[in-house]
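writing this on my phone so excuse typos. first protein, seq and then structure
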Amino acid sequence: MFHTLHAQLELSARNFFGALNDLQNASVAVTPLQRNLILEIEMVTTEVWLKLKDCDKARYSNAIVLKKLRNFQGIKHSVLDNNLIVGIYRQSAQLELEQKSLVMAEKFLRQARDHASKVTLTAELVRLNLVEGYLKKLQNEKKESCKAYIRAYTGAEQLGDAVMMDDIKPFLAEHHIDYFD
């Protein structure tokens, strides 16, 4: 678990290859019964490849995490973290958007929404709304895109995450929405 957390810190610091090294160490240390950790390692690995703009490796890594997710969901008494499931499907939608596959992106986004609940982390909901906003923008659904970006900004504001709010402001400005600092 330490390696996974450190990999996420490395990813935040834009030390992508340090993050990959930590993820490799984490995958060696994980046991087969640590299903949530296995999924998290694969999900963060996909995130690294997305940040590096290597869509082929991101797709490969995403295919692995989706396959493992489906296998783990089929195991009786398998308790999986909903935040991870939402994150995996959101990330899959994001990857499909990178490839301009709108139908598949919408499918993954719907699956993410299906697994979202009251206990889903607000930060994950913010990311989910950002992806939805971008999808709706590509589908020329300006009103729905605008609503998704507003939900994302409101969520980031609830978290008090100024960096995330700053990341969302260009999308709001694109829709000519005033935001208050």
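second protein below, same order as before
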Amino acid sequence: MKRTDSAYRLARFVVLIIAKTVFRLKVTGKENLPKDGSILLCANHSSNWDPVFLVSAIPTSRSVRYMAKEELFKIPGLKQLMTAAGTYPVGRGQGDRQALKRTIELLKTDETVGIFPEGTRSAPGEFTAAQPGVGFFALRSPAQIVPVAIIGNYRPFKPMRVVIGKPVNIEDLRDQRGAAKAISERILEEIKTVYYNHV
């Protein structure tokens, strides 16, 4: 079920003000968001501000959930804000099965989960290799995969853009050997296409 509770709305309202006033955020491509079903929202990643921009770009009817490193949940105040914003903790490394299981469960219940396929930050306009994690989630859920490009230099009062692309078709890759990696690579290529078509 989509989260539209007051806590999320309040958290989104706060970050939206920051995104609009400090970063002059502009959003295009909202018509590409599926109206029904779960969504795996996949974006490039250059800054800790990226989750703020994605939450701001997506309507509250499509509240965005994220995994975040568990250390952040030990910071007083931040834990409450992150929880209200729909974020849940993940341990270091690749062994946090509970977080992986929760992500799959969310994607099976019409939720929207935000993820950065590269798994780490890169400089604006640059991309690193796609990690297989996003392909793992795509294979094990019915989620529609939506590529998103975050464009800008992250400087205060300089325009930032979020461009939402059309859903990615992965059906021809599902039965392929090494499908998770191939799917991750296709998703990243789609993100690059959206990015370079709008810079």
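The helical segments are 6-21, 50-57, 78-84, 97-107, 133-139, 179-196. thats all i got for now
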